[in-house]
Amino acid sequence: MPDLFKGYDAGAAYDEMFDATSLREPYRRLVESLQHLSRADLVNRLETLQNSYLDQGVTFDIGGEERAFPLDVLPRVIELDTWATIEAGVQQRVRALESFLADVYDAGQVFNDGVIPRGVVTTSAHFHREAAGVRPPNGVRIHVAGIDLVRDEQGEFRVLEDNVRVPSGVSYVMTNRRAIASTLPEPFADHRVRPVAGYPQRLLGALRAAAPAGVADPTVVVLTPGVHNGAYYEHALLARTMGVELVEGRDLQCRRGRVMMRTTHGLEPVHVIYRRVDDEFLDPVHFRGDSMLGCPGLIDAARAGQVTLANAVGNGVADDKLVYTYVPDLIRYHLGEEPILRNVDTWRLGDAAAREEVMDRLHELVVKPVDGSGGKGIVIGPQASPGELDDLRSKVLADPRAWIAQPVVQLSTVPTFVDGHLGPRHVDLRPFAVNDGQRVWVLPGGLTRVALAEGELIVNSSRGGGSKDTWVLAGMSTTSPRREEHNVPASVAPAPSAGPAMDDLTSDAEEQQHQQQQQHQGRHEARAGAGGPAC
Amino acid sequence: MQLRLVHTTGFQYGGQALASYNQARMTPQTGPGQIVVHTRLAVDPTPWTDDYRDYFGNEVTAFEVLDPHSAMTVTAVSTVHTDRQPAPDPALDWADLAGPEVADRWTEFLALPHLVAPPEELAARAASLARIHGRPGEAARALCSFVHDEVEYVAGSTDAATAAVEAWQQRAGVCQDMAHLVLGGLRTMGIPARYVSGYLHPLEDAVVGETVQGESHAWIEWWDDGWHAYDPTNDLEPRDRWVVVATGRDYLDVRPLHGIYSGSATSSMFVRVDITRLA
Amino acid sequence: MLSRIAESMFWIGRYVERAEDTARILDVQTQLLIEDTIGDRETACRNLLSIMGVQPPEDRTVDVEAVLELLAYDATESASVAAVLGAARESARRARETLSVAMWEALNTTHRSVSTGHFRTMGRSASFRWVRDRAALINGAADATMTRDEGWQFLVLGRSLERADMTSRLVSTAAFTSGVGSPWTSTLRACGGHEAFLRTYNGLETERGAAEFLLLDRLFPRSVVFALNRAEQCLDNLEAGQRAGFQNEAHRMIGRTRADLEYRPLTDVLTDLPAEMERLQNTCTWATEAITSRFFAGSEGTNWLGGRV
Questions:
Q1: Does B68 touch chain C (CB under 8 A)?
Q2: The domain at A345-408 falls in which architecture?
Q3: DSSP letter at A492?
Q4: Domain limits at C19?
Q5: Where are the domains of chain B?
Q6: What is the pTM of this model?
Q7: A251 and C3: CB-CB below 8 Å?
Q8: Rounded CA separation A16/A47 (Å)
């Protein structure tokens, strides 16, 4: 057991590396490969990593301040079997939500069949009636999904939240991988980690597949709110790695129901917009009239089938926290399957019976606003003061539909290098899924977010969380992975020409003179011997 | 009755508008009680248009004008044949309203958005009417009459953004306000109700061939095992002089013309409706 | 390419060139002003400001310090080197994802020296030299790392237009201070062309020769004709080839001005040098407007009225 892990106290939660004191199988190889790394070594490597992130500008905006994205040096390892369950569960979830959205913005059969009350959906702030009648060309509304998972006390992965509007974070998955591969090259080489660099190509393929009918070579763009947006780095990275234009609202214009891009050659058509602008800001005709981030006419163009918006407008009703409580039923209704990944137990406080059960237990539970994001508004009962709990109680009674309650899930922990030593910190996992209409592809790994403060359960980066590189192993083999044999050249290639200056530098000056003299002599001799015997 | 309607509306800009994107809900549809013989929407300056049906089933024409213009005029010309039967007697009782077949199905027409939210006094009156009358249909009728008696029709006393509570305060308003007030009361009673926009031939004995200046009119419908129409402004059940154009939760869902424009800082809207009885 | 990005590239080219050339002009002029013990310093300073397109302040005396504030250090004055470097960096920030890392970093670190006040503390000639060095770094990074696509053409177009404009101002300043010392020598030195000039004119330095060199020489990269030629080349590359005439208004304007300079007798031009130089500057302004409306139209955001808020 390397020095690093001495004195590691796993704590009450499910620790992913240690089962009480014994090491769990997936981490065996990692620990072995870290044998020769001292604490000082690790500190050094971590510093280099952080500096490189700052130089590259891999940052996240917190309250207007740009900080380097905090990446922990120790990767999280997920073995193949566990991952297979996660992958299947995420795919199932996305498929069910796709069917749900298609129904809810069309016939609404799911209401007639009593699976979910219509009122739950129609009172959601994200139910956009403007999107009714917009039929995506290949039926896909959730081109990119981020399904947040947590691992409970028994080590089972459960779904905490669905994100199907504008999920972000995938750029950090890719930059983290590059950073860790160069920071811990030896351990990385010892494992067969499934790569993540293929994400942009997958996304591009899915976006192209979603193009309006009859377009042979679709123009795809990434629509960003601009440099002031906290996730701008990701928008720019994705545009660059997909090889598509990064546009802002003002670069676009809708003409005759088509979306055009202002270029130096005039207006050029745009067919698919991977938009990282929220619904409310997307189209001043139908939504916020003061928005400078969108382009008027986008919704009508989408309805006319001339442009595809990815993700579709109105997806927010599927990741509404209240609808979340119905998703297991939706999986059964739309797919006829049992949920592979379970929800976290949830009470809907709009429900009188649920309220009765939990109102005097608020101090034991986690209470979340239905319309919150980024961890805002969440009250963790055991950590709240009596004043905060009273405040919460009155808020809930004033608008019960707006709140849900869940038991405090002890998120699993993974050893994290904080303040010079390793300690258990709570983590969650956000796998990303790309739907191209034929299949839902899940990026191997995803973003592991870690709460850097000891005991802290909220992992969002906007609340001071960090992340870890996530390794999904491609099957365990006992020997070191065999590197691919490359063809070895048969002979040495010709060297590039040296030039006169190089000759002067590399040859000995004396030798030069000697050679000159020899040449000189040679000439003399030749001349001397010129009058030799004729033939 | 066969009616010909010419609805002209538009914007006058102080200066020039450079570009505008608009949505028009001025196209009547064939439905219970009316058949649309012919309908056409024309816009000046000539734009690109696209027609679609919105969430509430209304016909919408989306159009854009991308050349500089100082005024934009939209004219809807329709010929509609109306034949409304007198409404059936109230069918449902209060218990029926509470069940999911009604309350969940029409949940959107039970909501109380800003324009519709009733003043306390009206809500109280609605509650007492609900106690008095054995059937929702009867209570609804009574509420309409109550609002008609309480609020005086005064043209120009309110504008399109006026909420029900404001109109109630001054006990004056136009058809839009009467409709909002009644909706607030009905929904408070648990009766799903919706806003209807359309046209009304103002003369009871409409003369064939005579063109009169009508109005863009608003009334309501409540749910009683079917949509039951009533006009609180005139305290009458809509018959053949009424033509339906659009329905929704409140005025915002049925606006005849709205949109955005860039350029000139000011705009004013004009409206004119000419109605002719053809048969 | 996106109009917005093309516009950024054009202005980066112009701003960087403007900063460099302003520094060159200031380098020469401040030296001359200090050495000049007989002439009217105030008038000379005011003349310099006028030539640079800055309205000299009426209410106070204008000395060398004031000139430096207005043209070099004050970041709130739009003609100052400080402001121009800031504008260059701002243009780059808007197009950041299309610039190479080297270029962005060069522009960003240059601006940081200004914004942190370091630029001001360098001392006069050192700061002017620093600006020239930074410009060389930025242009070198662009040269080495930018694909020769449209973005590159717009960058060089902006740089060339600005250079023609700035050289005309440089020539004006030499003409104005012709009473004292050898302004032409200093001017030639300022554009790094003194040695080239001497080689070309066989060591014979005359006012006429210097003016000819700076205005008409086809091979010296800082001459007006060279710059205009380069600008025309860029416009040519940006438009699809045309068999007759010029579709682009800017192309026509620049071509005519260049032809005008080249084909008229030099004596004519020298007779009223200041007026000629002003005409040149106007051409550059009009050409910029024509380029903007042709290529960058509509790239500013629109304010929409009448919607739901």
A1: no
A2: 2-Layer Sandwich (3.30)
A3: P
A4: 3-294
A5: 2-83+255-277, 94-253
A6: 0.84
A7: yes
A8: 25
Would you list which residues of chain A are within 8 Å, Cβ to Cβ, of chain C?
227, 236, 239-240, 245-251, 253, 261-264, 284-285, 287-290, 292, 296
Cβ neighbour number for residue A487 with a 10 Å cutoff:
5
Inter-residue contact C231 to C238 (CB < 8 Å): no
Judged by CB atoms closer than 8 Å, whether chains meet at C304 and B262 is answered as yes
CB–CB contact C305 B262 (8 Å): yes
C308 is a domain residue = no
- CA A429 – CA A157 distance, rounded (Å): 9
Please report all neighbours of C, defined by 3+ CB atom pairs within 8 A.
A, B
Q: Which of C165, C174, C172 has the alpha carbon at shortest distance from C207?
A: C174
Inter-helix orientation angle C150-176/C273-295, to 10°: 160
3-state secondary structure C40-87: CHHHHHHHHHHHCCCCCCCCCCCCHHHHHHHHHHCCCCCCCHHHHHHH
Ranges A120-134, A234-248, A387-401, C243-257: which has the least confidence:
C243-257
The Cα A435–Cα A445 span in angstroms is 17
CB pair distance less than 8 Å for B50 and A257: yes
C309 touches chain A (CB under 8 A): yes
Decide if C304 and A240 are in contact by the 8 Å CB cutoff. Answer: no
Considering CB atoms only, which of C3, C302, C307 is closest to A263? C3
Measure Cα distances from A269 to A22, A240, A254, A257 in Å.
Answer: 60, 20, 10, 11
CATH class of B94-253: alpha beta
pLDDT tens-place string over residues A438-474: 999 999 989 999 988 877 777 776 667 889 999 998 8
Beta carbons of A205 and A140 less than 8 angstroms apart: no
Question: For residue range B81-127, what is the model confidence (pLDDT) as tens digits?
Answer: 999 999 899 988 898 888 878 888 899 999 999 999 999 999 999 99
Asked if B143 and B137 touch (Cβ cutoff 8 Å), the reply is no
* The residue type at A470: T
Using the Cα atoms of residue A202, residue A206, residue A207 and residue A211 in order, give the sign of their dihedral: positive
Q: Do A119 and B107 touch (CB under 8 A)?
A: yes
Tokens of B173: 């308003």
CB contacts, 8 Å: C302 with chain B: 19, 262
Residues A188, A166: Cα–Cα separation, whole Å: 31
Q: Compute the nearest-CA separation of A434 from chain B (Å).
A: 29
Q: Number of CB pairs < 8 Å for B and C?
A: 18
**Contact residues, C window 289-308, toward B, CB-based 8 Å cutoff:** 302-307
Residues 6+ positions from B222 with CB-CB distance below 8 Å: B136, B137, B140, B186, B191, B192, B193, B194, B228, B230
Calpha distance A219→A152 (Å, rounded): 44
Q: Under DSSP, is residue A234 helix (H, G, I), strand (E, B) or coil? A: helix
**What ipTM, to 2 d.p.?**
0.91
Put simply, the answer to whether C303 touches B262 (Cβ < 8 Å) is yes
For β-strands A22-23 and A465-472, DSSP reports them as: unpaired
Q: Structure tokens of B9?
A: 């509306």
Residues of chain A with CATH 3.30.1490.270: 345-408
Each of the 309 residues of chain C gets a pLDDT tens digit; together they read: 899 999 999 999 999 999 999 999 898 888 888 777 777 788 888 888 888 888 888 888 888 888 999 999 998 988 899 999 999 998 888 888 788 888 988 998 899 888 888 888 988 889 999 999 999 999 999 999 888 888 899 999 999 999 999 999 888 887 776 555 567 887 888 888 888 888 888 877 788 888 889 999 889 999 999 999 999 999 988 886 666 666 678 889 999 999 988 898 888 888 888 888 889 999 999 999 999 988 887 766 778 888 876
Taking the CB of residue C126, how many other CB atoms lie within 10 A of it?
9
Query: Hey, is C1 helix, strand or coil?
Result: coil
> Under CATH, to which class is B2-83+255-277 assigned?
mainly beta
